Amino acid sequence: MSEAIKYAMGEDRIPHSWYNIVADFPTPPPPVLHPGHGGPIGPDDLAPLFPMALIGQEVSTERHIQIPKPVRDIYRMWRPTPLHRARRLEQALGTTARIFYKYEGVSPAGSHKPNTAVAQAFYNKAEGVTKLSTETGAGQWGSSLAFAGALFGLEVKVFMVKVSYQQKPYRRALMETYGATCVASPSNETEAGRAILAAHPESPGSLGMAISEAVEVAAKNADTKYALGSVLNHVLMHQTVIGIEAIEQMEAADAYPDVVIGCAGGGSNFAGLAFPFIGKKLRDKRDVRVIAVEPAACPSLTRGTYAFDFGDTAHMTPLVKMHTLGSEFVPPGFHAGGLRYHGMAPLVSHCKELGLIEARAYHQNPCFEAGVLFARNEGIVPAPESTHAVRAAIDEALKAREEGKSPTILFNLSGHGHFDMQAYTDYFAGKLRDQDYDPKELEASLAHLPKLAAE
C-alpha cells in the first residue's frame, strides 16, 4: 500500500468519454412518460426545454458518450480532481479501515456541479441558444451554471429556493459575480410562483417550486432553454468523470474500494462517483457495496414511494419513475439545501430497485459533527451536503474497528463549505434542530401522486 496522501493525475488523464450505466443494467429503466396522454415521451416533446444533443444523451443506451474537445479543454481548469487518503482521520478514529475521498471542491465554483454545467452550456451554445433558466437549492448548481454561462456567453437566470436565498447570501453574490441573475423562489415573476404565493405567502420554497418557475420561463421564451443540475440521465452521465478518474487513481494507490459512499439529494454527485464502480460490478463482477446517504428530513430513498411522479410542484415536467415523497412535499429548511428535493434520480432509483445500492438517512447535527471532525483532521471544511457522506464513511470506519476488519472506503467530498459557514456557526451555537418531515404532510403529498402511479 502506497504511503501517499494525495493521488493526482495530469490533464492528459481527463476522461475522453462519459459513462452511461444504462448500457449495463440487467433490465432497462422505465420510460419517461408524457403527462398528457401517459405514453412514452418523444424528442419533440422535450425540444422546448433542451437542445437535441442533450435529448439524445437522455435516451441513449450507448455505454460511452464522447466528451467534446471544448468541454475537455475547460475541464482542464480543475480536472482531474485529486483523490486523497484520509490518513489523519483514520488515525483520529483509531480504525483499521482505509479511507479515501475524491475531492470535487477544487472546481472554480467549489463543487462537482461544473462537470455538467459546462457540458450543458456547450450544447446549448452550439444550438444557438442565448439564455438559460434554472433552479438551485443551496446555490452550488446556480453558481456552477453561472460560471459556465460566463465562459460561453450565455445569459443565466437562477430561481433559488427562498430559504437558501436567505441563508446563503454569498452563493447569490457568486452567481452575480459570474453574471447571472438570481431570484428568490417562489417569486412573482412566473405564473407558477404567483400561484404558490397566493396560496402560501410565507412559503420557504422548494426545489420543486423553483423547477416549475425555471421550466415556465424556458417554455414561454423561444430564446431560452432549461438546464437541470441533477436527476436527469444526461446530468448523471456527465458526472461520471468523477468515478472514471477515481478508478484509475485507486489503482495508483494499489487499492480498490469495498464501500463507495456519496450524499444523495437528486443523485448527481452520488452517481458520478458510484456508477462507474457499479458498472465494473455488473460487467466484471468486481463486488462493491454502494451507499447513498440522504437527509432524514427529506428521505426519498428510505421513505419515499417508487412511482411515476412529476419533477416539479406545478406539474409542468414529464413523468418519471423514481423514489418520491410526492411533488407537493415541502421539506423543512435544514442547511443542506442541495439535498432538499422530493424525488431521487430515476437511474439511482432503478439501482435501488435492482439491489445495487443501499440507502441510509441522517439528521443534520450528526452530519455537522462529522464535518467538524473531518475538517479538524483533514483541513477541508465540507459543504453541508457532503457531511452526509463524511458521516457514513466515519460510521463504516468505526464499524470496521469494532469488527476488527480493514475495508477500503471511498467517498465523494462533493464540495467545500466556504459559503456555508453560517450553518457551522449555527451548529457551534447549538441552533441547529434535527427536523423531521411531517408524516401527515408526506401522506397527503403521496396521496396526490399521478393516477398512473397506482395503475
Layout of helices and strands:
Layout: E1 6-7, E2 17-19, H1 43-46, H2 52-59, E3 64-66, H3 69-75, E4 83-85, H4 87-93, E5 98-103, H5 114-126, E6 131-136, H6 140-152, E7 155-161, H7 162-167, H8 169-177, E8 181-185, H9 191-199, H10 207-220, E9 224-226, H11 233-238, H12 241-252, E10 259-263, H13 268-284, E11 289-295, H14 300-303, E12 305-310, E13 319-324, H15 346-353, E14 358-362, H16 364-378, H17 386-403, E15 408-413, H18 421-428, H19 439-447
Parallel strand pairs: 5-15, 6-7, 6-9, 7-8, 10-11, 10-15, 11-14
Antiparallel strand pairs: 1-4, 2-3, 4-5, 12-13
Helix pairs in contact: 3-5, 4-16, 5-6, 6-8, 9-10, 12-13, 16-17
List keywords for this structure.
alpha/beta; Rossmann fold; seven-stranded mixed sheet; four-stranded parallel sheet; 19 helices; 41% helix; globular; TrpB-like_PALP; amino-acid biosynthesis; pyridoxal phosphate binding; tryptophan synthase activity; Tryptophan synthase beta chain
